[in-house]
Amino acid sequence: MPMVGFSLALSAGICAALASTCAKLAMHSGAVAELCYIVKRKHDTLQLVIPDCDSIALSMRIISFCMVFIFNAVMWTLFVKSLRKCTSSLEATVINTASNFFFSAFLGMVLFGETLSLVWWFGASLIVIGLLFIHKGTAEDEDLNKKSL
């Protein structure tokens, strides 16, 4: 598979994970407000003037909501380009899905303190292995079709 197609599909998955993270921030006011209060407490010791956390949280939620659409638009653009650059559409789909899955988990752990159990990692590994089997089967089918022509 060309490296350009791989990079585009990987980037599309990352954008999809960022879109879902922005959606969580837009719909979950507690996370944004908590972050604001932490920053405000830190800046209060420096005696800086910071607007009310409620107005900051509302602004951040609106920005996050808009970013959902931006990241999704970029994701679809990258994904469509990766479909053209990869040797098969399945390759692009497998890479996109796997990167979205794992980057969403990573962002959840880092930004929201979510914990992932061993069972989650086992299940995620099974999904990726399944995607690889699908990819391998498709590649073998394509090789057989080329030989028969």
TrEMBL record:
Residues 1-19 form the signal peptide. It comes from Saccoglossus kowalevskii (Acorn worm). This is Transmembrane protein 42-like. The keyword Oxidoreductase does not apply. Keywords: Membrane, Signal, Transmembrane, Transmembrane helix. The keyword Nucleotidyltransferase does not apply. InterPro entries: EamA_dom, EmrE-like, TMEM42. The chain crosses the membrane at residues 57-80, 92-112. The gene is LOC100369684. Residues 63-134 form the EamA domain.
